[in-house]
Amino acid sequence: MRLAAMGLAAMLTMGAAACAQTTPAPTTPNDYAKTDNWLCLPGRQDACASDQTTTIVEADGKTAVEPFKAAAAPAYDCFYVYPTVSTDSGGNSDMIIDPAERRVVDQQLARFGSKCRVFAPMYRQVTLAALRTAMLGGRSPGDGELAYADVRDAWRWYLANENKGRGVVLIGHSQGSRILLSLLKNEIDGQPAQKQMISALVLGMNTPVDAAGNYGSIPLCTKADQAGCLVTYVSFRATSPPPANSRFGKTDPEGRRAGCVNPAALLAGKASSDEAPLHAYLSSKGFGAVEGQAPKPFAKDLKVTTPFVSMPGLLSARCVSDGEFTYLAVKVNADPADPRADEIGGDISVAGVILKDWGLHLIDVNLAMGDLVALVDRQAAAYGAK
């Protein structure tokens, strides 16, 4: 996979934040009353109206097709901030919806439409080109404050015009999660909007928590029927834990560990440190939100014609805290005697070399998608009962 194709790149955690940025020129705020500035809005055929049909592959090789249907009248909302996907050439993306943005909501957000109204603003994110420049030691042309300001403005517009007292789940990945952490700190924690927060899914990004497991006043989720809490993790193969040079899952300079919540374990009534089977939805078109490198076969002699594949029992995970790192350790429960694959794709590789410090960043969300969707519905029920 080419480095430029890393659509779910870690962005600022992998160097761009540490690089000096060029002084940004004054910019005009986006008007989020204009529907063109949204990737997804309720009640229209847009990027989130994508086919989520899934082939279920059992351990004995038998298959079934799982259809998908969006909720007709969902009781709560989901507000999503997408990861680093822009292929625009500048330091920050434009506001034109490209295939990259459509592809990522297909992978990470559209399935939540079975439970909630989905809102996904376009924003002038720091691009893959800026990330590449920073990773090569250059001066990043990206303006992270501009990206944050766009999402903040979209959030404020949503609260003023669409929320109407409804509960909302906030969802982010990678750069989107980094922005979401700032949004939680500046606009939600201790603010009136905190009363509307069902939960926050801060995925593929370090969430520094205190000794009590809190991000500010927002606690990590410890059970499925809990509202107002935070779900966060970075994922690595159990057989390939974070190397010393990885920034994912690393304790920060202030000694705050990265939070880790295992959504599958919570649904099973277990602690996040307990192993639990993952309800993954893997793309049959490529890794995570990235196309261009075909996934490995899912089973012997199986031709998949649906956009997604789910293989019950093949994957399990638990939160691990080891040395400086805290992360979701993903185990492949391979059985060479059955027809299913004994391994999954999802690693980032450059020139055939796997970048172990990135872990399974490309498929952080896919790995637990079914669990996340089920969990937010449980959380929404708890929120509604308060």
UniProtKB/TrEMBL annotation:
Transmembrane segments: none annotated. InterPro entries: AB_hydrolase_fold (IPR029058), DUF3089 (IPR021440). PROSITE patterns: PROKAR_LIPOPROTEIN. SUPFAM superfamilies: alpha/beta-Hydrolases. Residues 1-20 form the signal peptide. Keywords: Signal. This is DUF3089 domain-containing protein.
